[in-house]
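ok trying again, last paste got cut off:
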Amino acid sequence: MSGRCGGRGAGGRGRGQESGRVQPSPSFPPGGGGARGRGRASTRGRGPSSPPPQVAPTQPPAPFAPTVSTSTYHPSSSSGAESLSREVTQKLALEPQVATTAPPLPPSSSKATRPPPRPGLGTVGRKCRVRANHVLVDFADKDLHHYDVSITPMSISKNLNRNIMEQLIKTYKESHLGHRCPAYDGQKNLYTAGALPFDSKVFVVKIIDEFHNHGSSTFVRERQYKVAIKLASKPDLHYLREFLYRIHFECPQETIQVLGAVLRAKLFESYTMVGRSFFSPQLGHMGELGNGIEYWRGFYQSLRLTQMGLSLNIDVSTQSFYEPILVTEFVVKHFKHANLSRPLSDQDRLKVKKALKGVKVELCHMECAKTYKISGLSREPISQLTFTLDEKGTNASVIQYFCDKYNIELKYAFLPALQCGSEAKPVYLPMELSRIVGGQRYTKRLNDQQVKALLRAACQRPHDREESINRMIRANNLQGDALVDKEFGIQVRKELALVDARVLPPPMLKYHDSGREQSVNPGLGAWNMINKKMVNGGKVDSWTCVNFSLRYFNMLEVFCAELVKMCNSKGMVFCQNASIHIRSARPDRIDQALLDIYNESMGMKRPLKLLIIILPDQTGSYGKIKRICETELGIVSQCCRPMLVARFSNQYFENLALKINVKVGGRNTVLSDAIMRRIRLVSDLPTIILGACVTHPPPGEDYSSSIAAVVASMDWPEVTKYRGIVSAQPHREEIIQDLYKTVQDPQKGVVPGGMIRELLVAFFKSTGQKPHRIILYGDGVSDSQSAQVLLYEIDAIRKACASLQEGYMPRVTFVVVQKKHHTRLFPTERDQMDKSGNIQPGTVVDTGICHLTEFDFYLNSHAGIQGTSKPTRYHVLYDENNVTADVLQVLTNNLCYTYARCTRSVSIGL
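nice, full thing came through this time. structure:
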C-alpha cells in the first residue's frame, strides 16, 4: 500500500477505557470569544487589516478556568483563523519577517518552507559502525544542458519513445548533435554534458518494423515521426557542490534529476522499469505466485543528498508480473478451470474480461508478431464472429480466416475472442493463439496466498540481502560506461558506506508490585510475562464465547476455563462463569449468531463486556466479524484462530490476556521513567502524544475511501493508554481532512469539531489537565508532500486549540515517520547482531546517510524475526519545543516498548 500508513491505524494499542466519542466538558471552555476557529475554507485567507502573527508562548499557559466562557463562537466575527495560517507560514518561511512589514502570502510550494535545522548529533548509547546500502557518487564538472523533447505523433509508450530517440542519435549524432551522447528519460526530457549545436531543431525519424508471417512472406511497415528538441534549462553542478559543502542552502533538485536520469539511461536497455526499480529474469531466481502470476527479482536505485555527499541508494526488490503464457493457459490457471471443454458463462466471461483488460498479447503463429492491448472480450464465441475482410465489404468468419490464411484450425471455437482496438474498429484475436507479452507488471490486488508467496520470495537474511545488493552493483558496472562515466563524468563506487551508529539502552518497564518480578529490563527487544502481573488489571464481569470452528468444536469449555485462569493469574479480575451460555455456531450463520448473543445481552442487568470468538476454520471472516461486533452491535470482541486455540499453549493464553486487558480498560505495563517523572519532554509539563496516519486501499480498488486515524495518549504522565478516532476520506487523499472542522447546527449555529479537538477534550477529561505540549508523529508523509501536509495539519491543530479557549497555543513538535524507504543497515561485527543476524534493537543513525542540515535519524527499535529489519526514518518538520537529538531519539525508542499487544518492542511506537 502506498501512502501515509503501513501499520496498525487507530487500533494498534487496544482501545482501553477511552474508546467512544467524548463530548466537550463544561470545564473545558468551548468558545473562547470566537476569534480563532474558522472552517477549512478559510484556512489560507487573510484580510487587509489582520492582527500580527501569534506564536506559541514560551511559558506554559494558565490552566483551564473552571467556569464556562459566556462568549459565543462566531466564525466570521474576526480574522483570527487567518492569523493562525500566517503564524504557521511565518514559522516555516525561509527568511524571518520584520515586525513592521505586512505578513507574506502562504507558501505555494515546498520551496517556500524549511524544516528546523539539526540541533546537533546524539550521544546517548553504545557506539558502533554499520554498513548502509548507499554507495558514494562522484561527479566531474560538466556543462549540463536540459532539452525539452516533443514527438509527433505523440506516443505514450516509453519503449517506443526510446526507440525513436535511439534511431535519432544513430542517424544524426555526427552531423547535427556535435558528437554528443545524450541521456533520454523516455518522455519529454533529454540531457547532455555540453551544448548541442542548436537551441531548437526538428528532426525526422523513420522507424521500420518487419513482421514475418508463419512460413510465408515478410511484411514491412515504416513509420515516420517528427522530433522537436528545444533548450529548456542549464542545470549547474556548481550549485550542487555548494549545497553539499553547505555554502548554498537551496537544494538543486533539477541537477539531481539530471544525474538520476543519466544513471538510469543505461539500465533501460537491459531491464524492465517499474517506478524506480528495475527487473529482469536474469537478476535472480524467478517463481510462480499462482493464478498465472510470477515474481521477478530486481533492484531499486535512487540518488540521495546525504552528509557524506551524493549517494546512490540501492536495494533489492521483488515484483509480480504476468506469466508469458497463452491466454487459454492463463484462464485455466487464474480461474482454476480444470479444462476448457465448455463455453464460459456470462459471469465467468466478465471475470476474464476484468482480469485481462489492458494486458498486451502477441500472436504466437507469427515469427515477428505485432503486440496488441486487450480492451475486452467478445460477447459471442469466436465461431460466430465475422469481420470485414477487404475494401469491397466482404465478410469473413474469424475461424475461416485463420484456416485459409494460416492453415490453423482453432480448437476452442466456443470461447469468446480477445477484443483489441476500438469499438468502431475492433480486432478479434483467438485466445489459443495469443501469448501474454513477458515483462508486464501485475497491478491488480494479490490474494492472500499470492501475498504470502511474494513475501517468502522477498524475505532474505541480512547477510544474503547485503550480498545480493553487492551483486547488483557489480552487475551494473557503471564505472567505465561510455555514457555515465566517459560522457557525463559520473563515477559510482562499489563499496557500501560505513556509517557511525549507536545502540540506545532499552527502557525499564514497570509491572504490578504483587508479582514476583515488579520490573524488567528487556534484552534484545523482547521479554516475557513469567512471574509478572499487569500494572493495571482490567475487570471482566460479563462475558461469553462463541465457536465457529467445526474442527475443534469439542474444546470450547476447557479453552475458556484456561483463558479465564490465565487472565486472573496476570492481575485481571475475570469472572469465572460466562454470563451468557457458551455456544458453537455454524460458520455460515455468523450474522445471526452474533445478533442472538447481542439480543440476550440486552436483557441482562450488566451489559456484555467481552465476547470471545473462535474463528471459522476457513480464513476470510475476521473483517466481517469485527465490523459487526465493533461498529454495528457495539460489543468488544477478542477473535482467536482455531489452530492456535487447539494447542493450549501458555504463551498463546498470555498473549490473549494482554490483548483482552487493554480492550477492557487495563494497562499491561508502563515505563519506569514515566512513573518517576523522568521522561524528558514529557514528564515536566502535561504533554499529549499524537499519532496520525492514512491507510489507502490496495491496488485494484480505485474507488474505495482512504481511512484516516489519529491516536492520542490519555494517561499523562505514563503515556501508555491511547484513544483512537478513525475517519473516512476521499480516495488516495494524503492530508487528513477531519483534523479540524466546523458543523452548522440549526440551534447552536457553527459548532467546531474534528479529531484533534475531540482528543484534546478527552485528554482533559481523563487527566484533569490541558496539554501544554503536543508531540505529533505523522506516519508516511513523503518528502515531496511534507510541506503541504505540514501547513495544513499544524494549522488544523492551532484552530482546534483556539476553538477550545482564547489564546490557548500549546507548543507543537511535528515528526514524520517514514517506513516506505529503501535504506537498510547491516552489522559489521558478530557482537552487533541479534539472533536473526540483524542489527540490534535500539540502533540509531544520525550521521553519514542522513540529511545534510535537517533534523532526521534512522532508528531500528525492534528485533528482527525473519528477513532483514527495516529501520524507521524520523524527520522533524516543525518544532517549537527546541527538542535535542538525544531527547527525541530516546523518547521515540522508549515508546516502541509500550505496545500493548505483545512483549516485544515494535518498529513504530504509535
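cool. The first helix runs from residue 80 to 92. Confidence is low (pLDDT under 50) at residues 5-27, 29-55, 58-85, 91-112.
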